[in-house]
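The step that takes the researchers longest sounds almost clerical: writing a folded protein down as plain text. Below is the pair of lines this work produces for a single protein:

——
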Amino acid sequence: MPDYTAKATTTAGRNGHVDSADGLIHFDLSVPKELGGPGKPGATNPEQLFASGYSACFGGAIAYVAGQEKIKPESIHVEADVTLHAGDSGFDLSVVLKCKLDGLDRAEAERLVHKAHEVCPYSKATRNNIDVKLEVV
């Protein structure tokens, strides 16, 4: 399989604008009111974008490991809760991945979720860097 490179450019940081090179992403950014920012209506933030990417990637990883084992969940839902923590030494992230695999028993779903965590590129990138919790709901 060939490599793929995604490209995006942000102007003016967290209260700016982000565009992908292909034009599909075209978002205004705003620091949420909860963090003391303006919370501009219709704007997103890096944590929402990261949560979107991680949940999509992790769902794909679950489908991949399930397919390797010839298991076919009826559906796969992944909610990524990404929290930005402010501390004395700057900022940190944590993630909770809430996974629902319809049509599988809990033990099988938990096994696939843990296996997906080993192959997901986002999980690999965050491993030993930020706190990531896995939940089967």
Remarks:
- The mean pLDDT is 97.
- The helical segments are 46-68, 106-119, 121-126.
- Strands lie at 8-11, 17-20, 26-28, 75-87, 90-102, 131-136.
- The two ends are 33 Å apart (CA to CA).
